[in-house]
Specification:
By secondary structure, the chain is an alpha+beta fold. The protein contains 15 helices and 14 strands. The strands form four sheets. A five-stranded mixed beta sheet has the order 8-14-11-9-10. A four-stranded mixed beta sheet has the order 4-12-13-7.
Length: about 575
Amino acid sequence: MKFKLPEDLSKLSLDELAELREQAVAERKEIADLPEDKLDIAALDAFDELVAAIGSIDERAGVVEAEETALAERRAAVKAATDEEPTEQEGDEPEGDDDNPDDVVIPDDASELEGEAVAVTASARRGAAAKAARRAPKPETPPADEVTTPTPKVAMVAAANVPDFNSGQALESFRDVATAFQSRTSAYARTATEAEMTTPRREVLELSGSAVKQGVAKIDLRPVATDFTVDSRMSTQDQFDVVMAAANEKARFGAQGLVAAGGWCAPSETIYDNFLSLETVSGILNLPTVTADRGGINFTKGPDYANIAATFGFTQTEAQAIAGTAKTCYDITCPPFTEVRLDAVGFCITAGILTEAAYPELIDRVLQIGATAHAHKVNASVISRILTFLGTAVDHAEIGATTSDVLDAAVIQALRLRYTYAMAPGATIEAVFPVWALEIFRSDLSRRTGVDMLAITQADVERYFSVRGISVQWVYDWQNFVTGTTGAWTSYPDVLQFAMYPAGSFVKLTTNVINLSSIYDSVNTKTNTFTAAFFEEGLAVANTGASGVLVSVDVSKLYGQTGANNLGPATP
């Protein structure tokens, strides 16, 4: 790093500090313009040092500026005290006021004091101020019935999300505005293109089509009336009190207000942001997720164990060997490749500009709902794609006990998959159930006699599967529990389906495409609307491993059924 920050900045003037800052900013920009592969640890450390150095320089410059301002004010006070006194008017009091023995008479001709040190004491300034006050006209008191309006004032405040500044924080000077701008932009680093590195930089900069608008500060020209200001951080009751106080004639003008009797009179409170939030992203299928930056993937599952094992190896008798019978060989062939391309899924929400200004709570609530709805829409699509791979459901042969029937069906298909791929006996098989299936098991088990099972937990049900090497997920957005079987919410569905596959058989593919918020453009602005949110992502499901199975079980049989107790000897 070429730039070196002096150890002592106290000896530098404002001009010297400004020159030093320009050097630091220039070197910081050189680092920011480096290609990404050149931004090593040393370059990043140097960038951080330059940012810190610029901050130190700005801090010292602020101190120097404050000192020079104070010095200038003191000099101005001296000049004001040595100015020529105005000519005494008839009726004015003489300069030598006995009530103010500390008064000092300033000579008319300041040139007589040339070359001499002039000391103006505090008492002299007080005396001059007192005389000026006596000569000043008395302020006129406006009539009691005269109404005055707040005087418009100019105030600069920080915009939202500016680092190191609170939203709405007052900015005392344009130096504060510059500091806020530096704080907003310091985190952005731009990589120069190859063309820019080989050609001279242009003097005129043009706004890129992909430029993003970022707020730094705003100038507020509204009349200042702090007594009747409604702030979003105030409670609803406080806001209501301010509104009513502003409408109160006595509070505003000091006049005698009218007194009303009887009834509540006051209008009902309006609550704007007390939305009941019930939706969640629970019940989302958990799948391994891979980012596909190229719009998709091209892969192969490789050789299939079941196909190879069916014809693999040979057994030959001695007679066959003597006869010269040919031995069977497995011929290795190239496995096929499968291409999976991403689909685009997303959502778009528009709103009125005036609605954003007056009722932002409504827009925030809709955005929350939209994000949750999108998650469930994607979940439904992922499950549907997996079901397409699984194909037609296997209909299990039921005996009549709901929990036992489902466990039997799950174990049979788990054994089938482990046998097909020669998996370890305890290898995990994934099972995906709709959320309401959990209540089927509880309803059945709670009717069992001889055992208190009214408090069956989710962990209890999952334990029945886990001891059999099956990992269960309970999901929404599949076989939704809408109207039961009768259309009147009086029973559970008659048929339960669940999906099973070896862990890792399916992979979710995704990539972010567009994620925008608060977009204002010329077309929508003409209709007083804007895009509150626009989100789009790529989505696909790839069957990168083994296949699975869809299982169907009739759960309309008797609940609480168990085998009959038989204490007699076994029938021979």
